[in-house]
Amino acid sequence: MKVKICGITDLETALFAVQSGADAIGFVFADSKRRISPEMAKKIILQLPKKVLKVGVFVNEVVEVIQNIVNETGINVIQLHGDETPEFCTQFTNPVIKALSIKTTADLQQMKHFSCEYFLLDSPRGKYHGGNGVAFDWSILNNVQLEGKKIILAGGLTSENILRAIEITDPHMVDVSSGVETNGKKDIAKINGFIERAKKLKEEVL
């Protein structure tokens, strides 16, 4: 099971996550308590292995700003977490993750209109467009045809519920932010525990 640790703001945590087995590191460039500057993101990315996906998270940002940050930092995957249109998502050469808020089965139909490489399925929005620590009803994905779509499951994931989440949804990747934090800060013990369980438990499911 591939794992993305999102909302990284410092080099030490990023390196620890990668050493623990993280396949992707997420940097938030939108309004969030986890927002990072392009300068700091660049410093971190320069120290990360090439094989690790470096994901830039944007919310209703203009193309020029996104492209400038991508060029400056070395971000190699763009996550669009706002109200971006299908047409907007086609304006980049980098792979795009389109985040969708899922409340009912009908919300999954949005995927038909996008031609993105990945779809991140998240819980309904709270104060921020993501990272609110709330899970949606995973059973919504039961009996839904998702062949050919790389699904990233997000929203309220923790070490305690990751097995159930994987069993129900069988995603391409799982994404966690607040679920590996203590008092609003990334907790390396929780990061290690989450990654270990996500990867080990996937083997058990198989």
TrEMBL record:
PANTHER family, A to Z: N-(5'-PHOSPHORIBOSYL)ANTHRANILATE ISOMERASE
Q: Known Pfam families for this protein?
A: PRAI (PF00697)
Similarity comment: Belongs to the TrpF family.
N-(5'phosphoribosyl) anthranilate isomerase (PRAI) domain location, by residue? 3-196
The GO terms this record gives for MF are: phosphoribosylanthranilate isomerase activity
Please name the top-level EC class of this enzyme: isomerase
A single GO BP term for this record reads:
L-tryptophan biosynthetic process
In terms of domain of life, where is this protein from? Bacteria
Record EC number: 5.3.1.24
- Please state what the protein is called: N-(5'-phosphoribosyl)anthranilate isomerase
Known pathway: Amino-acid biosynthesis; L-tryptophan biosynthesis; L-tryptophan from chorismate: step 3/5
Q: Please name the taxonomic classification of the source.
A: Bacteria, Bacillati, Bacillota, Bacilli, Bacillales
Protein transport among keywords: no
What keywords were assigned to this record?
Answer: Amino-acid biosynthesis, Aromatic amino acid biosynthesis, Isomerase, Tryptophan biosynthesis
Q: InterPro entries given for it?
A: Aldolase_TIM, PRAI_dom, RibuloseP-bd_barrel, TrpF_fam
